[in-house]
Amino acid sequence: MRTSRLQLLAAAGVAVASLALTACQDGTGTRDEGASASGPVASAPSDTSSQAPKESASDNGGNDSSANGSSGDAAGTGDSGGKGSSAGKGGSSAGKGSASGGSDDAPASFNPCNGSNTSVTAEPVSRPVNHMLITVENTGSQNCDLPYYPVLRFDEMQWVPQPVEDSKPQAVVTLAPGESAYAGVLLSAADGSGSGGTTGKKLTVGFQGRTPNSDGGPAAIPALPAKGVYYDSSLTVTYWQSSMDDALAY
């Protein structure tokens, strides 16, 4: 009985061993091990692919720094562009400053004084001798400008009296409503050196525009003394002045 049990156990052990050997021979165990090994193998590409971006990021790190350099250059260009833009503004300000300043001969905003918006008088004076004073009063409602000097003509005179260049002011004379400006006229030479002396009965006072010798609008014809005004070839006139004393200083 005992021997039979031992024989049965031995037979069972042989059967188990045969089954294990069969399992090994048909590759089932290898397939199982392969399946468990396939986990790391599958994860390896995953790790490799996850490392590739890191390496790429590392490589890109250099590229990033060069990209940053490029963006830095771009920023520099932007800065220089900003400077250029600032310079452009500065230029516009300069243009704008240059325009507002205008020239000595004409203001930026120009409204000429003439016979339509002023009252004009012409009166000989006792001092200095042989001089006449022309006075222009702004009778309009707006400021007006008196560039250069009056263009004088006695009767049918065929020549234009020249200005005294030393009397040229630093800026155009501008008159507010009710204000006056002046011009002095040397009628004849005190020492008698002038020629072609004659007596004028009528005086026309012309006004200049923004540019020299341009038309500034209607002329004025101020009244002269009944006996007229004597003048000769020495006839000259000053530029328009804000002060009566300045007008008679030449």
Automatic annotation (TrEMBL):
<keyword id="KW-0732">Signal</keyword>
<feature type="compositionally biased region" description="Polar residues">
    <location>
        <begin position="111"/>
        <end position="121"/>
    </location>
</feature>
<feature type="compositionally biased region" description="Low complexity">
    <location>
        <begin position="58"/>
        <end position="77"/>
    </location>
</feature>
<dbReference type="InterPro" id="IPR006311">
    <property type="entry name" value="TAT_signal"/>
</dbReference>
<feature type="compositionally biased region" description="Gly residues">
    <location>
        <begin position="78"/>
        <end position="100"/>
    </location>
</feature>
<dbReference type="InterPro" id="IPR025326">
    <property type="entry name" value="DUF4232"/>
</dbReference>
<feature type="compositionally biased region" description="Low complexity">
    <location>
        <begin position="35"/>
        <end position="46"/>
    </location>
</feature>
<feature type="domain" description="DUF4232">
    <location>
        <begin position="113"/>
        <end position="241"/>
    </location>
</feature>
<feature type="signal peptide">
    <location>
        <begin position="1"/>
        <end position="23"/>
    </location>
</feature>
<feature type="region of interest" description="Disordered">
    <location>
        <begin position="26"/>
        <end position="124"/>
    </location>
</feature>
<protein>
    <recommendedName>
        <fullName>DUF4232 domain-containing protein</fullName>
    </recommendedName>
</protein>
<dbReference type="Pfam" id="PF14016">
    <property type="entry name" value="DUF4232"/>
</dbReference>
